[in-house]
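Hi, can you check this record?
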Amino acid sequence: MDALTHAVEAYIGRSTTKQTREEALKAVKLIFENLDTAYSDGKNIEARRNMLTASYYAGCAFTKSYVGYVHAVAHSLGGEYNVPHGLANAILLPHVLEAYGHAIDRKLHKLAIAANLATAETPDEEAAKAFIQAIKDMKVRYGIGDKIPEIKKEDIPKLAKYADKEGNPLYPVPVLMDASELERFYYEVME
């Protein structure tokens, strides 16, 4: 799920290149084709090899195109509460994608095609919703919850400031948000 977050954030950002977009698409395709198998059958070497390759492509993409608010918020949670990074990313990813709204529909459509969830003829908004729903469905299949119990309400303004400082101006996010807007993600995933 961390590799998927790397690929998605690299692809939807505003600092992509043809190469990083291709790498992100390859990563998403491989993840959607292999993660279920690798998860359910850890001895399936081909699926695990494909997941390693997907992680590599996603890493190449985000190293050049950066990540976004999913990572900024996840890093603050890891730093403050030692929440595992990949877990925080998996929980936050659909929340942040939904918050970006229609600004990323066209790009999520391309990712949905790579994930074999849509075709070129599918309307952008429909494909984007299908992609986000597929991520939510993955979380259910893998037993990943929707809440981070460590979050304390009184810490949220501080955490949001950390995420804002990391994300702005470093990350080329598709929709700019300030610290007060980033607070919503902590509230959405707080128990």
The chain has a mean pLDDT of 98. The chain is about 70% helix and 0% strand. The CA atoms of residues 4 and 28 lie 6 Å apart. Residues 18-40 form the longest helix (23 residues).
